[in-house]
Amino acid sequence: MHEISLATALIDLVHEQAAAARARRVTRLVLEIGTLSHVDAHALRFAVDAAALGGPAEGATLEIQEPEGTAYCLDCETSVAISARGAPCPRCGGVKLLVQSGDEMRLKEMEVV
Amino acid sequence: MCSTCGCGQGEKRVEDISHHHTHEHANGAHSHEHEHDHAHEHSHTHPDGTTHSHSHSHEPGHAHAHEHAQGNDAADRAPAGAGATRLLSVERDILEKNDAIAAENRHDLQATKTLALNLVSSPGSGKTALLVETLKRIGDKYPVAVIEGDQETTADADRIRATGVPAIQINTGKGCHLDADMVRTAMSRLGTPANGVLFIENVGNLVCPAGFDLGEAHKVVIVSVTEGEDKPLKYSSMFAASALMVVTKTDLLPHLDIDVDRLIDNARRINPTIGVLKLSAKTGEGMDRWIHWLETARALRLATD
């Protein structure tokens, strides 16, 4: 359940940003959680709700964007989109893929009052 | 700042990409143009049902306040008054604090030419047995120290200390992984084995430790032959993050149906550059190659800044 650690780190970051912007309340969070990251969006949602309790982000709407991954195929020497690690190259079926992106875990935006 | 709705635009450095910006309010729409670097678009709906969409931009890592009044009478209100909803563009990694502490650890380890390895695996893969056998072979050759992570007990650190090598236990309690701050504290108490090797035995867990950089030079994933061929496919993040896979308990192979070649193929499917070693800490088979790998990695650390 490292989603709890992530949620705690996220809420700390949210509190910092909210304080810096002199906001009283956080109403919406937009996260980017790549599909190749080791995070379960459902578990993260639950953990964020729990971590936010009692603070300015309690009850904030959580929007999670899940961009797909990209990888470089060593067989056809092309950058391709992939939805899972270990998936074959969608172009040539090769299995030697170097993952280039898709494990992002970012706080993109927050809406505050 | 737009005087009608209060949406901020003025505080950013402006470059040569211009774009168009439209809002709709219940009491009418207006639009205006402004310029930015790094544009993006988004929309949101206010509690009163007003949908508001616009593009704006910012530089990465910079919080950018975007203010506009809420409600149907928005035009009549002070732009940044009480109750104003603002959109902050944040663009920060959720684990940036962990990563910053990991960078400090990595800096200290580099400064003392210490090779740090983060050993990760499922519970029961034989990490501690491998470590104990390793320390018997290298413990008196150069400085070595061990940080042990477990949810409970000091059993593993006790096993390590019995070999004469300094060890410190981190109990994570309910936590499922070590983080960089725990390791920083442990390093400050244990001291770094300058010119030697620091082993960090992570909590037995093939999922969570993958995402937490501790400042190590390499992650080493340990898989026992009793775990089956599919572990790399089931727990891909860990194999993707590791430089080396050590297959342990090879002495059990005669009793098992596992196809070790398939295990290795699966690991390479996740990570084409992962190194592979097979060994038995119990019989000593393959231990020489592991020790050779360690000494090569240590030599590289000593040879480079």
Describe the protein's architecture and organization.
With 113 residues, chain A is of the alpha+beta class. Chain A is built from 2 helices and 6 strands; from the N terminus they run αβαβββββ. Chain A has a 3-stranded mixed sheet, with helices on one face. The two termini of chain B are 49 Å apart. Chain B has 2 domains: 17-89, no CATH class; 96-303, Rossmann fold (3-Layer(aba) Sandwich), CATH 3.40.50.300. Chain B is globular, with a radius of gyration of 27 Å. By secondary structure, chain B is α/β, with parallel strands linked by helices. Chain B is 28% helix and 28% strand. Chain B is built from 8 helices and 13 strands. Classes of the chains: A alpha+beta (113), B alpha/beta (305).
Order of strands side by side in the largest beta sheet of chain A? 2-1-6
State the total count of DSSP E strands of chain A: 6
Number of domains of chain A: 1
Unreliable stretches of chain B, pLDDT < 50, 5 or more residues?
1-81
How far apart are the first and last residues' alpha carbons of chain B, in Å? 49 Å
CATH topology of the largest domain in chain B: Rossmann fold
